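Lab notebook, bench 4. Continuing the backlog of folding jobs that were queued last week. Each job is logged with the same field layout so the records can be merged later without manual cleanup. Today's entry covers Acetyl-coenzyme A synthetase, a 426-residue chain. Filled in by technician R.K.

JOB TYPE: sequence-to-structure
TARGET: Acetyl-coenzyme A synthetase
LENGTH: 426
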Amino acid sequence: MKRQDTKWQAGRDVWWQDVVTNFPTKCDVEWVDAEDPLFLLYTSGSTGKPKGVMHTSGGYMVYTATTFKYAFDYKPTDIYWCTADCGWITGHSYVTYGPLLNGAAVLVFEGTPNYPDAGRCWDIVDKYKVSIFYTAPTLVRSLMRDGNEYVTRYSRKSLRVLGSVGEPINPSAWRWFYNVVGDSKCPISDTWWQTETGGFMMTPLPGAWPQKPGSATFPFFGVQPVIVDEKGQEIEGECSGYLCIKKSWPGAFRTLYGDHDRYETTYFKPFAGYYFTGDGCSRDKDGYHWLTGRVDDVINVSGHRIGTAEVESALVSHPQCAEAAVVGVEHEVKGQGIYAFVTLVDGVPYSEELRKSLISKVRTQIGAFAAPDRIHWAPGLPKTRSGKIMRRILRKIAAKQLDELGDISTLADPGVVDQLIALKDC
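JOB STATUS: finished
OUTPUT FIELD FOLLOWS
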């Protein structure tokens, strides 16, 4: 319905200013116990039956307030902007509870960050003097794809700290975020955490230690991460394995609502005595942590276990690749093959030569065993409003199981699916 077609209807319509004055401007505090439920947030990532993650009042709020304060070096003069949708955990923890518990001035934006053009974010930053900007790697890569000119036309001089959330940020996107958006002067809080953890588990503290592009660096105060092997044995020093948490922390969720057995089975039984994050992790010789993605996003190619995030990072390091998503498909010889969906930098045409160049990039960075068997051109990737790539859909497209795509109504742009299907044989 067009705005001008909406007619005033007596008995239904009221003027806001006439009604709001009838209500009090203060709301009494409702005192609750520390372990009383605060909220339920249903999460399943890209697969699985939704899980009702339950956070409680005391520990969660203490944890989000503390992590916000230190991970962003918050000061009372800051203007803070987190681009997350309020409906997912980042919106709860770092749009609402964490900032407001610190009395922070929070900018809330409801809209598309690249409309009317890719400079929208920086226009807002300049207009409202935003000093802390927290966003997802998927937005960083999207804006990087559109070119530097949309960034450099704005001063961004108010920016002091940048942040990344949602998935591991590949080094090339990190460098662009740091060098172009932050003018090589803003530290990046590359945060790792989960819906279940309530708040940051690993994050750089601005200015506290040197950063490494793509690394979440070290654990937050009191958090004790360990890397274990398949038998649940802790591995010391430089290594790769399964990321677990050894001791409890205030922000931990208390149960899966109505299914405590699943809570124990999913998070505490895989490795007895530890909280299992479900993520893979590498630790380098300096003790820095590098998240490699979900362990169920590991592809077994001829006996080589390859993390999808590793292949995606290699693809995105190609100067003409803006974004990539990798899934496994059945392969009659290797067991599983590597199927890569690739979004190119704006204006770059599809070509067989470029396809070969992308594969060569992966061979050079990782090895021949990790070379994609198929490059599928992708004008866009199927994502939720929070920026999560729906790999379930990509797996079905890769396997040509188009009648099993399931519900795509929660995608930010369901039309992307039809575009991918149209390009499946290109």
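OBSERVATION: The mean pLDDT is 91.
SIGNED: R.K.
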